[in-house]
Every structure is written in structure tokens, then in C-alpha cells.
Design goal:
This protein is of the alpha/beta class. It has a single domain, classed as Rossmann fold (3-Layer(aba) Sandwich). 36% of the residues lie in helices and 21% in strands. Strand 10 and strand 11 form a beta hairpin. The chain is globular and about 50 Å long.
Amino acid sequence: MSLSDEIKKGYRKMSDFKFIDFKPEQHGFTGHLVIPEPQEKTAVIVLSGGEKSLLPGKSVAKQFAKNGYPAMAVPIFGTEGLPDTPDKMPLDPVIKAAQFLQGYDGIDKVVMYGMSMGSIFAILTAAKVPGIAGVISVSGTHVIIEGEIGKNTSGHSLVTYSGQELPYLPYTMKDGVFEGFQKAYKDEENVKKAALPVEDCNCPVLILVSDSDEEWPAEKSAEFIKNRLETSGYKHPYKTVVYKNASHLIGMLPDDFRGKIFTTLAKMFFASMKQHPQECKDAVKASQTEITEFLKSL
């Protein structure tokens, strides 16, 4: 297949990318921008965890670029100027990155993409930055949660803004992480205080979750967000998709993460990938299609 044929299909080779790194001392945030050639005018901010996570944001950004979309991975912990662990992570650098990309040459629209805890930052940023074109939340939650240090919760919020901790939902890992969230989500008073203001996003919203998410009850979060949007009279399109027997690992997964090594690692940490391998593969493919169709619709 020729390069022109690949481009027509919306898929790029690595050699067709331009890579630009951004540093906090110069720009106020750490970011890794991947620009394909040719490129769409819609860009994506990728929020998927730390700089050295199992699924690095840079790899996800490259996958968006392979589909023609400029994408900037913005780590939320584990790099210069940020906490070493997911605790008291500042929202401010993410906001600066989104505002910077909004004014970048050749880009007309900016979409927030958050995977797992990154979904919290995606929704919060869209709620605070005017003009964000869309929000994609993958395997996310509906609340700001308590931060963690090592294998213990920290007693502090996961997120800070302008130097202040945002209201959060406490949980415990005593009986297991999933069980801790499952119990915490029943705390209606604290859930109300910590709920993400998704109704303030002022843009289309796409929520993708699995009913067998190993990390937290993501399907419950999707239902909560949907109800919050409905009751608020949200005026923009929104959609929730629940994948049956799928894993926490859905969404825009890099090609090189779908091979044998990643599958082996994933099965060690994510039970659904071991119990329902085909459903998990199907969900990854289907969720990526949902994401690209959402971007095309904006």
C-alpha cells in the first residue's frame, strides 16, 4: 500500500510526525506534541497518568496522530514540577496546555481526552477553559477522588487548583481498590461534594466504560454523569457507551501496546483481559471507532 493510500485511510507512518516537547520553565507545563502531516485541524490533549505509566500518554498521542489528529500528551504526575505520585496533582498546568494548544498554528479545535484518573482532569479542564470543543472520558470516574502515596490513600485530594485542594471523595484500599471505590461511591454526601461539574463543560461529551472495569465501578460513574447531564438540561450532544466483559484498558491504545508483551502484562493486572480476551479486543477496536467518529463530528 502506498503512503498516499494510507493517508487517504486516515492512518500515518511514524516518519510523517513532527515531535515537539514543552517544558514547565518555558511554557508552564510539560507536554509532548505529536503533529502528523497532513493534519486535521482538531487537536487532542491526552491525559492518561504519569510520565512513566504502563500506558504513557506519549504513546497514546502518537496513536491519535496516526489517525491524523495532532495530539499533546500532558503528564499529571511523575515529572519535573509535578508530584511523584498521584496526590495533590495541579490542574493549572493542564489548563495552560489546553489554552496554549487553542492558539497553536493550524489548530481550530481542542478536545480533552482523559483515560482513567485522567478523565477527572479532562472534565475539570473543559469546565474551566472556554472554547474546548469536546470531552472524551475513557474508563473514568464521576468524582474527584482521594490521592494516594504508595499503596495507601493520602488524606488529601487528588487534584489542586490555584494552590488549593479541591473537594474529594475519601476511600480505602484496605479490602481492595475496587471494593474501596465501590463502598465510597455509596457515600452520597461526599459524592455530592466531590462530583465533577460535567454540566459546565459546554461542549459535546463522550463517555466510554466497561461493565467489568477492574479498577472501579466505571459503569456506575457513566450512569451518574449521564443523569447529571440530563437533569441539568445540558444543551450539547452527549453519549455513553458501556462495553460488556471488557477491561479497564479500552480507548485509544497504541498499536505497539496491543502485541504479545502488552497482552501478557495486562493479563497480570487486569482480570477481564484474561477471562474475556476476545471481548476485550473487540471493545478496544469499537471504542477507538467511537473516538474517531466523535472527533469527526465536531
